[in-house]
Amino acid sequence: AQTIHQWPVAEIKAVGSPLSLGCTIKGKSSPNLYWYWQATGGTLQQLFYSITVGQVESVVQLNLSASRPKDDQFILSTEKLLLSHSGFYLCAWSPDWGRYFGPGTRLTVL
Amino acid sequence: AQSVDQPDAHVTLSEGASLELRCSYSYSAAPYLFWYVQYPGQSLQFLLKYITGDTVVKGTKGFEAEFRKSNSSFNLKKSPAHWSDSAKYFCALEIGTGSKLSFGKGAKLTVSP
Lengths: 110, 113
Known about the structure:
- The complex is a heterodimer.
- Chain A is mostly beta strands.
- Chain A has a single domain, classed as Immunoglobulins (Immunoglobulin-like, Sandwich), CATH 2.60.40.10.
- Chain A has no helices and 11 strands.
- In chain A, the strands form 2 sheets. In chain A, strands 2, 4, 5, 6, 9, 10 and 11 form a 7-stranded mixed β-sheet that branches.
- Chain B is an all-beta fold.
- Chain B is built from no helices and 12 strands.
- Chain B has strands at residues 3-5, 10-14, 19-21, 24-26, 32-38, 44-50, 56-58, 64-68, 73-78, 87-94, 101-103, 107-112.
- In chain B, strands 2, 5, 6, 10, 11 and 12 form a 6-stranded mixed β-sheet that branches. In chain B, strands 3-9-8-7 form a 4-stranded antiparallel β-sheet, with no helix packed on it.
- In chain B, a hairpin with a 6-residue loop joins β10 and β11.
- The chains are: A mainly beta, B mainly beta.
- Chains A and B meet through β5 and β10 of A and β5, β6 and β10 of B.
């Protein structure tokens, strides 16, 4: 069975500081991986997706970047956080259809 | 462009009643449709999907949904509702395998004991 892990569970960061969020998936080779962002009380917005190592497509950037350094790893980062970056970040993988989501990282920017 | 509408942002009912959460979509071709549930403070969990075939699909936690092409709807149902069903429910549309998954704004369901 596939398992998806995200780290950290939660972060409290200052405006202007850097950020790195990670996601790994086990039990699935060459998965399609996605990053989603959810504002508090809001819906989900797809940020990035990747179908293979070294390849990332941006859907909505929000002054963030993503990388896929390994087949099972997807990283979301920025050099300077904004207040608007606060929210819930979800990594997901896709079988042929739909998405299976990781547990998420809750980010608070102060 | 495809879109998903969940017209009822908040739904409140009593335990034991029947629940139905509405979802309509806009897409000219055959859609892939999904329902997800999000409990407070948690991630999204998959409930059920419609890809093709039977228009009534059953999912986890006793939920089912009916795909109606005639009015572009994919409503989620459960009877009876239980207080533990209280959560936020999202309908989603995918137009092809691995392509963008568009979410509705969600419906917050409150089931009172």
